[in-house]
Each structure stands twice: as structure tokens, then as C-alpha cells.
């Protein structure tokens, strides 16, 4: 997974946990140590019982589907390496997903959030640049924290992003994000950089080192509390808002897919439901015989 699929450390850790839990389930059922579990114990029936146990424990369908996906990937690997002659769980159905519409912010809420940081402080200049960049580009939080200074091209107004699976894409910057980034780089970053060793990272913490994804979440939480938005807002909420606002204003689905770095168009299609909800709301509010 690391070499061939360029999987992140987080993905590797999650898959390892998911597989270890399945082996622990099998070992408990058979009264043996997890290390003694052999491929002969992996069957359609044993996996169905594992799914049933997870359901009894109250795990969500999304969690169950992810754990099953990790197991499917592992079984396919065993088949490819001729450790298994055929796939014993090929007929196991994935739990049907409850597709939740992603949360997003309205443009008025976006404006409030962008104006929340105190631009008289170096950290405030940095935070404004973070918020504007997330909303302008639709980046994942991990993509944002991995940005280095050379990844921003102010001449062409784009950001070079290294996405999932090590896939690179180019995303437009936008005038507001450009303005905020320039202010941060010219008047804010230098004060943060002076507190640590030289780092190529675009966004630095108070010690002059690269900001973590948790730090980005904490920054957003701080400003959400300041402006009293009555909903949970994460870095991904800004990504959802980016996609929703583009589609609501006439962007085509294929372009939004490219900007978000989605491999499958079906992943992007969930945002069309948001657009339909908006159309329904407008109809409800304006039609005389609603």
C-alpha cells in the first residue's frame, strides 16, 4: 500500500487496526491466538458473523463498510500473491450507506469567518490566509498543511497540490486568497519563522515549524466560536462550501471534480443533491401555490 498505492501513514494505520480487529474476532471465536489465525478461517460465513457483531456493538454503517473495504483489499492481495486460490468473501454485501448531505456555510457565514482573524497580529494574518486558501481552493486539510512556499505561484495565480495517492493537481488561487497570502508572507510569516529553524512549510506555528492538521482544526474552531456560527465547522466544511457554491453558481460537475481531486465523478455528485435542495427551498419560498 505504501509503495504501490502511495497510501498515507493514516491510511496504513487504519487498515492495520481494521485487520487486527478482524483477526482478534476470529481468534476469540476459535479460542486461539491471533497469530495462529490462518487463511482457512476467512470465509463468507465468518465475515458475515463479524459484520453482525459490529452491528450489535452499534458501529455505524460507514465504519462497517470501511472495515470491510480494508478486508477486501487484503483478500485481493492474498489472491494476487497466490496465497488464496479464490476470493472467499466476494459475495459479501457492503452495508448499505446512509448518504448524508455534507454541511456547508452560506456566503454570509463565510464572510464572517474570513473577517474574524485579527490582522494586527502575525498569527491573525496567517489564520486569514489559511481560511481564504481553504475556501478558495477546496483543499483537504492534509493538502494544506503539506504546502511549501514554492507551491504558490503568484505569477500564474495557482497552487500546486499533492493530493491523495501522491497525485498532483493545479488549483486556481483567487484574488482574496492571493491578497491574504501575500499579506501573511510579507508581514506575518517572518515573525513566526524567526522563532524556529528555517522551514519550507507555507504555514508555520508559533515555534516556526509546520502547522499540523489538528492545529488547523483548532484555529477554525476558535473563529467559529468567535462569530457564533451555530453548527460544527471543520476544514472539510470549507471544502464542502467551496464545491457547493461553485455548483450553485453554474460550474459543471466535471470541473468541480478536477478541482477537488476526486478520482470518481460519483464522489462529486453528492454536491448536486445540495444544489437540488437549494432549488427546492427556492420553490417552497416563492411559488404561489406551494
UniProtKB/TrEMBL annotation:
Domain of life assignment: Bacteria
Gene3D superfamilies the record matches: 1.10.150.130, Intergrase catalytic core
GO MF, one example: tyrosine-based site-specific recombinase activity
Biological-process GO terms, alphabetical: cell division; chromosome segregation; DNA transposition
The keyword Cell membrane is assigned to this record: no
InterPro entries cross-referenced by the UniProt entry: CB, DNA_brk_join_enz, Integrase-like_cat_sf, Integrase_catalytic, Integrase_recombinase_N, Integrase_SAM-like_N, Recomb_XerC, Recomb_XerD
Keywords: Cell cycle, Cell division, Chromosome partition, Cytoplasm, DNA integration, DNA recombination, DNA-binding
Principal location class: cytoplasm
Keyword Cell cycle among record annotations: yes
Record domain Core-binding (CB): where: 1-79
Residue ranges occupied by any Tyr recombinase domain in the UniProt entry: 100-284
Compartments, as annotated in UniProt: Cytoplasm
GO cellular component, one term: cytoplasm
CDD domains (UniProt xref): INT_XerDC_C
Residue ranges of coiled coil: none
Active-site residues, Swiss-Prot/TrEMBL: 140, 164, 236, 239, 262, 271 (o-(3'-phospho-dna)-tyrosine intermediate)
SUPFAM superfamilies: DNA breaking-rejoining enzymes (SSF56349), lambda integrase-like, N-terminal domain (SSF47823)
Role according to the record: Site-specific tyrosine recombinase, which acts by catalyzing the cutting and rejoining of the recombining DNA molecules. The XerC-XerD complex is essential to convert dimers of the bacterial chromosome into monomers to permit their segregation at cell division. It also contributes to the segregational stability of plasmids.
PANTHER family documented for this protein: PHAGE INTEGRASE-RELATED (PTHR30349), TYROSINE RECOMBINASE XERC (PTHR30349:SF77)
Assembly and binders: Forms a cyclic heterotetrameric complex composed of two molecules of XerC and two molecules of XerD.
Sequence similarity: Belongs to the 'phage' integrase family. XerC subfamily.
Protein name: Tyrosine recombinase XerC
Lineage: Bacteria, Bacillati, Bacillota, Clostridia, Eubacteriales
Amino acid at each position: 500500500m505504501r509503495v504501490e498505492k502511495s497510501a498515507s501513514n493514516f491510511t496504513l494505520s487504519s487498515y492495520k487496526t481494521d485487520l487486527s480487529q478482524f483477526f482478534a474476532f476470529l481468534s476469540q471465536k476459535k479460542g486461539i491466538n491471533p497469530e495462529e489465525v490462518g487463511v482457512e478461517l476467512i470465509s463468507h460465513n465468518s465475515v458475515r458473523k463479524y459484520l453482525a457483531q459490529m452491528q450489535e456493538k452499534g458501529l455505524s454503517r460507514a465504519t462497517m463498510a470501511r472495515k470491510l473495504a480494508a478486508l477486501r483489499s487484503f483478500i485481493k492481495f492474498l489472491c494476487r500473491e497466490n496465497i488464496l486460490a479464490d476470493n472467499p468473501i466476494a459475495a459479501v454485501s457492503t452495508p448499505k450507506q446512509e448518504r448524508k448531505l455534507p454541511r456547508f456555510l452560506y456566503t454570509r457565514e463565510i464572510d464572517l469567518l474570513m473577517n474574524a482573524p485579527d490582522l494586527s497580529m502575525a498569527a491573525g494574518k496567517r489564520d486569514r490566509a489559511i481560511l481564504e486558501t481553504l475556501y478558495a481552493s477546496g483543499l483537504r486539510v492534509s493538502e494544506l498543511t503539506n504546502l511549501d512556499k514554492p507551491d504558490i505561484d503568484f505569477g500564474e495565480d495557482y497552487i500546486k497540490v499533492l493530493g491523495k495517492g501522491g497525485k498532483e493537481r493545479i488549483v486556481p488561487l483567487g484574488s482574496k486568497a492571493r491578497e491574504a497570502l501575500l499579506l501573511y508572507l510579507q508581514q506575518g510569516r517572518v515573525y513566526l519563522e524567526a522563532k524556529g529553524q528555517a522551514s519550507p512549510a507555507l504555514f508555520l506555528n508559533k515555534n516556526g515549524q509546520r502547522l499540523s492538521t489538528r492545529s488547523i482544526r483548532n484555529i477554525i474552531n476558535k473563529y467559529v466560536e468567535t462569530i457564533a456560527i451555530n453548527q460544527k465547522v471543520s476544514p472539510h466544511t470549507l471544502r464542502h462550501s467551496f464545491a457547493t457554491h461553485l455548483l450553485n453558481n453554474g460550474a459543471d460537475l466535471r470541473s468541480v471534480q478536477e478541482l477537488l481531486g476526486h478520482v470518481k465523478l460519483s464522489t462529486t455528485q453528492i454536491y448536486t443533491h445540495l444544489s437540488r435542495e437549494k432549488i427546492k427551498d427556492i420553490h417552497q419560498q416563492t411559488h404561489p401555490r406551494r
